[in-house]
């Protein structure tokens, strides 16, 4: 696959993720990036384009992460009827269907819905962070294999970051992979 086709397909996958939130789209984008091979005619251009695609992927991942996400704030496994809720007289067991007061039932249903939303958000954020770790390892491997620790590599990485990445913590990480080692 030529680099222009690869760029188009990766962009389509990233746009699909932005629209749908489906993490599989990010996985597909990463697989497309991985499949890009340097060409004899334009190895430098392909190398720079592949780096730019990795950085664009991480920009999308960083934008999707909720900075307020707390992995310790786990959603309830299930929502129970609050103690003391009045039940219909013919119900021997405390179940949502037996809640006597319509306002209390509505409040219970809202709690169930809120917990479902929280569960989906929690799962997505947790999986996004796991995927981020996995893809960071893959990008690191590519960068270490392709780039040396040289001023030229640092210059190319800096240019790619300036164009494609805003997350300073991630930028420092990637720059650290190519920065010349000090004696």
Rg is 24 Å
Report the order of strands and helices: HHHHHH
Helical stretch tally: 6
Q: Which structural class do the helices and strands define?
A: mainly alpha
**Mean of pLDDT:** 93
Largest beta-sheet details: none
**Beta-strand content:** under 5%
The backbone outline, from C-alpha atoms, is elongated
How far apart lie the N and C ends?
A: 41 Å
- The percent range for helix content is 55-70%
Tell me the total number of β-strands: 0
Low-confidence stretches: none
Description:
The protein is 67% helix and 0% strand. By secondary structure, it is an all-alpha fold. The protein is elongated, with a radius of gyration of 24 Å. The model has no long low-confidence stretch (mean pLDDT 93).
Quickly list its features.
mainly alpha; 183 residues
Helices and strands in order:
Layout: H1 3-20, H2 23-35, H3 43-64, H4 102-146, H5 151-164, H6 168-178
TL;DR of this structure?
The protein is mainly α and 183 residues long.
